[in-house]
Structure formats: C-alpha cells, structure tokens
Amino acid sequence: MHVGYLNINNIKIFDHPVNLMIDDSQDVDIIFINWVSILSSEKGKRQLEVISAKKNKDKKILIFDSTLSMTTKDLNNIYDHLDSNNVILFEPILRNRPGFLYLPFWIDFKSTADISFSNLKERNMHLVNFIPSNSLLFEYYYEAIANLQTYNVGTFWLPKDKKDYRYIIKLGVNDLRSYLNTIRCSIILDTAFNLSIGYLNPVFIKLLEYNILPIIPMEHKYYHCLFGNSKIGNHSDLMFILKNYDSIYFGLINEIYENIKKYYPEMLTENVRDMILNVVKGV
Known about the structure:
Blueprint: E1 3-6, E2 18-19, E3 30-34, H1 42-52, E4 60-64, H2 72-81, E5 87-91, E6 100-102, E7 125-129, H3 135-147, E8 153-155, E9 169-170, H4 176-179, E10 183-187, H5 192-197, H6 203-209, E11 213-217, H7 224-227, E12 231-232, H8 235-263, H9 269-282
Parallel strand pairs: 1-2, 1-3, 3-4, 4-5, 5-6, 7-8, 7-10, 8-9, 10-11, 11-12
C-alpha cells in the first residue's frame, strides 16, 4: 500500500512514504494528512490543493487532527471536494468527538540498552515548561519551585492572563533546540479541557528523545499508569524527583518506556501502523 503524506516529521509508521509537499508526481493509494489549522500558511494551502485535486477524489484520505483544531467549517470544506466515505478522521484523545477515531501519537520503544546517559553537568535547567497551560497548575508547580530559588526553573510559555513571574527564566521558543540538552525535567501541564478529554501533548515524546524526564500532575488522570513514579500530586513529590534526579532519572525514563509497552502498546509505532491499516481495510 503506497502512502503519501503531508505535515508530518516522524513518518516511521509507513514504509517508504511519499512527502506530497515535495513530490506530487507519484501515484499513491492513501493520503495521510496531519491537519494544519492555519489554512493561509504554505502547509495549509498545500493541504487544500491535495484535498481538492481531481486525481485524489477516489482515494482514501486519512486526516489526523493532532492539535484538535479542526472546525465544522474545515470539515464542510473537505466534504465539498471528497466523498465522506473516503475520508477517515483521527484524533489523539480518549474521549473522541463524533465522527473521529482514536489514534495516539506514536513512539519507538527503547530498552535500557537504547537509553543514553545524560551529561549531568550540562543539564543546569532543573525544570522547564514547554506547554501553554492552566495558570493555576503552572503557579502551583513551576512558580512555587522557582520561588524557592534553589532550582533553575524556566518556561517557553507563560499563562496569558497572569502576572510576570519573578524567578522563572523566560526562554525563547525560537531557541528551543539549543536548550534541549540542558534540561532535566518538565511537567506536562495542559488546559483543564485537554486534561478532561485525555489529550496527552506529544511533547513528552520529544522530551524522552532528549533524556528530559517528563512528569505529569495527578490531574492527568488517564495516564497515571504510563508515567508510574513520574507522576506527582504535590510539591513533596516534585521535590523528591528534583533532589534525587541524578540517581533516579535513568530508571524513571526506562519505567515510562516499559509502561508504554505494558499498558499503552497502541502507542508503539508498529501498532499505530496496524491500527491505521486495519481501519482502512475495514472501511
């Protein structure tokens, strides 16, 4: 089955896929699109070109709304060009919207032999926030730890409706890559709504890739088993991790991978591929 795709960086779920942003000459059986909400952007325009192209009218079009940004207007626009029977909608939340199927973000499994040790001397940022989130949780965890003035706490995003945070280091989003090897931990916060529907921000995959320990608050109720001892319910839990990081980070990262394999095997790359192909065959 020959697959074309748009707007995806890690496309390991398919063998020899064709990037339709670069090459539109090859004939494909399935088109997999990671939905871009800004339709005026280059990616958004290309997305609409692919959807509206006559040669794609009878193909299976798989749309992954990874950021939960697709609107009713977007759907109507899609169905103006395509037969709804040929469109399959996916989203990465456990409490799906009508018409959408669950598809998790995919991750490659790592054993202890695959996980590298960090250069702890370089990791001088103890706790960094990557996600626009609930300001109350942000203050409860990030601001509270920063105010101790014991640990270096940073953020790429600040809650819009709140004051400036005196002891939190503001990091530039454009410089994100340069910071990745300097960070020890990150608490995966989110909005109250996203927490309630079971949306787990895919930043946790990038964190694991760079040996940054992802931590979740207890409010992330759908993923307690996945994070195991890397879930926290109060300041004491977080302080324990920060104080003992040097001796426990490797074991905690390994535990997350093992828990994915044990409790959330649908997240593994090969299983996501099977889920997609089984859905396509069953339509």
